[in-house]
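Posting this for the archive.
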Amino acid sequence: MLIAPTSFSFVSLDFQNEYLNLCHSGTDICRPGMSNGPIVKSFYLIHYITGGRGTYTVGNQQHKLGPGDAFLIRPDETVVYAADKHDPWQYCFFAFNGQAAEQYINRTAFGNSYVTHIDDDSINDLIIETTQTLSSSPANADMYAISQLLRMLLFFAEHYKGENDNHERPLRPDIQKVIDYINFHYADPITVLEMAKLVALERSYFYRLFKNEVGISPKEYLTNLRLDKARYLLTETDYPIGKIAECVGFQSFSSFSRLFTAQYQQSPSQYRQTFLAEDNDKLCLGSH
């Protein structure tokens, strides 16, 4: 379905609340090859692709997406999303935050995945309706925005229920507990033994269990997370690179530089220079 070019509406900051809040919504048609990122958001942002193709990269995973696919950007995670050079995508999107945001996300396919596929583009009409109404500054705009946000989240929750086994199973509670701990304490000198003790498991058994559940070892998960946090600091701050290595938990600058270069095929300084040299005109502005 063809959508209108770049239609975008913000919800006034005066209406935002701590529990749940629609930040903005809209639609966009990207130019061929246009790229957004590396970028970090401070809110949740969902895109639903209505036409064309593109890629979404989060962490070490790149997803090639097309019509009917949807992808989630989580707060404080470095991502890149880019339109195909020959068949650029168009999509509708909405951004939200609040204390209950994660709770609602976990009731959809996005609770354990960054992407999902839904053969129902009625979400596009809902987002267009919301965007157009908010742009006219209606009475009780705050209540309208929240009610529409809940309808959008309900759309993804209801389709998730019907998909059953098409999604990854949740992690074991003990492994999820360790993941949550790592995500919060990644800057600390965490060892695999300490992770195992956290869930009262023997080290070698915990190691095998973690790798079976997550797909990589505990140390690899921690290292990848630290490197991703370093990417954010390199692009969003002017901290010295040695300070960044320390901030994300590396005890040795040489180790940080070696691992970063192996992961991203650029040294930390080259990565920062490449990002700073990017042409801002290459961004898909509609989903800021």
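The chain has two domains: 7-167, 173-276. The mean pLDDT is 86.
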